[in-house]
Design a protein that fits this description.
Layout lengths: L1 H28 L2 E7 L1 E17 L2 E5 L4 E6 L6 E2 L4 E5 L2 H51 L5 H28 L4 H18 L2 E3 L4 E6 L6 E2 L4 E6 L4 E8 L11 E6 L2 E13 L9 E8 L11 E18 L10 E7 L2 E12 L3 E6 L6 E3 L2 H4 L7 E5 L2 H6 L15
Parallel strand pairs: 1-20
Antiparallel strand pairs: 1-19, 2-11, 2-15, 3-10, 4-6, 4-9, 5-8, 6-7, 8-10, 11-14, 12-13, 12-15, 13-14, 15-18, 16-17, 17-18
Length: about 400
């Protein structure tokens, strides 16, 4: 019996060896299993995603027109003011003195200078009349040869002096009369002094809400320094810098969904109402403003907001996750799986969202393409086994793409 056991054991070992070799050859020759997507039609929305800040279309900066020290500040951030409300009081001792001096000069003109000028004019007028009569009398006497020529010339000279004095008194009285040049000059001087004095009280020009203040009692303020920023209502907008590569798909009137960072669970609607005509060369962005209507109660000035501008929509589109596309100089391509082998196919793309891209030409519904095509770059004819993944689940797993602005294109 013992000699017969050896051939049986050897046969068993050979059988095991053959099975192991067969298994190794099977595993070695078996095609790799790769994640793939099946092309299907579904709704597709193209969006430009960016982050901006809330602004008011009507906002003013309030400053001082003079250099002075702040005596009192009457408002702070968040206060509502009406037109004419006092914001800041500045020191005014020297300006008050200048105004009092101008008032005193005007009063002196009216109560003293003007009456004196009129009195001197009357006196000069009387002296002129007397000198004229004396000159006429001596002229008559000279004609009758009763006096010498020297006496006549003395009378005529006295008349000339009296007339000059009269003309000077008349000019002085005209200057000092009511609404005369001297009074007008003093009025303007007084008005200028009062205007300077009024600048020590900085008031709100329009009703609004105080956004910022940069002044305290004791500060020395100068022209050009902004003391307050006041918003006056009007349209509330969101200003967003968007990469210039998206300019081709942006249009006024496009709708958007907005999310404030402070209230992520309360989205609100907005509409594109302004696209800047120029580009910021330093940042390569174009400024876009969106009007918010109605305005949520929680919205505040300069609040950070993420906007999703809808720039295109397809009710049904053949779409793939963006990682299935191979970009190239001649356009996009995909790695299709046909009869278990890789086949590179050029495709024409259309609408592109943050995670999905529409395929306009080159694929049909039901076709299978490899995921992560750019990383694989398999040559045509490579045998593979496709492990299908739902494109929607793949798109949902791309991460927080809502905060990254992606290039988009609409053919």
């Amino acid at each position: 019996m013992k000699p017969a056991t050896f051939p049986v054991a050897r046969a068993v070992w050979w059988l095991v060896a053959i099975l192991l070799v067969g298994a190794v050859l099977y595993l070695w020759m078996r095609p790799a299993q790769l994640v793939a997507y099946q092309v299907e039609a579904a709704p597709l929305v193209q969006q430009v995603v960016a982050t901006g800040r809330v602004i008011s279309t009507s906002r003013t900066q309030v400053g001082s027109e003079i250099t002075a020290t702040v005596l009192e500040r009457h408002v702070r951030e968040g206060d509502r003011v009406q037109a004419g409300d006092l914001l800041v009081t500045l020191s005014a001792a020297d300006l008050q003195a200048a105004a009092r001096e101008a008032e005193a000069a005007l009063q002196q003109l009216r109560s003293s200078t003007r009456p004196q000028a009129q009195a001197r004019l009357r006196q000069a007028e009387a002296q002129l009349a007397q000198a004229t009569r004396e000159a006429e009398r001596r002229q008559d006497l000279f004609a009758r040869q009763l006096i010498a020529r020297e006496a006549l010339e003395q009378a005529q000279e006295a008349e000339a002096v009296a007339r000059a004095a009269f003309d000077a008194a008349e000019a002085t009285a005209a200057s000092a009369r009511a609404n005369g040049s001297e009074e007008l000059q003093l009025r303007e001087r007084l008005e200028a002094a009062r205007a300077q004095l009024s600048r020590t009280q900085i008031r709100a020009q329009r009703a609004g809400l105080v956004l910022t203040r940069d002044v305290e009692p004791g500060d020395l303020v100068q022209p050009g320094r902004v003391l307050f920023q006041i918003t006056h209502g009007g349209d509330t907008e969101i200003e967003v810098p968007i990469d210039e590569k998206n300019l081709a798909v942006l249009r006024e009137g496009q709708s958007a969904q907005c999310i404030a960072d402070a209230w992520p669970d309360q989205p609100f609607a907005a509409t594109v109402n302004y696209i800047a005509p120029g580009i910021d060369a330093g940042r390569g962005t174009v400024t876009v403003r969106l009007r918010v209507q109605p305005v949520p109660e929680f919205l505040r000035q300069d609040m950070t907001v993420t906007v999703n501008i809808e720039t295109g929509r397809r009710d049904r589109a053949l779409a793939l996750p963006n990682d299935a596309l191979l970009p190239g100089p001649d356009g996009s391509a995909v790695l299709a799986v046909v009869d278990g082998r890789v086949a590179r196919r050029p495709v024409q793309t259309g609408l592109r969202s943050v995670s999905m891209t529409e395929v306009v030409q080159g694929l049909a519904a039901g076709d299978v393409v490899l995921a992560d095509a750019a990383a694989r770059q398999l040559p045509d004819g490579t045998r593979v086994r496709a492990s299908l993944q739902d494109p929607k689940e793949a798109a949902a797993g791309t991460g927080d793409v809502s905060r990254r602005e992606l290039p988009v294109r609409l053919d």
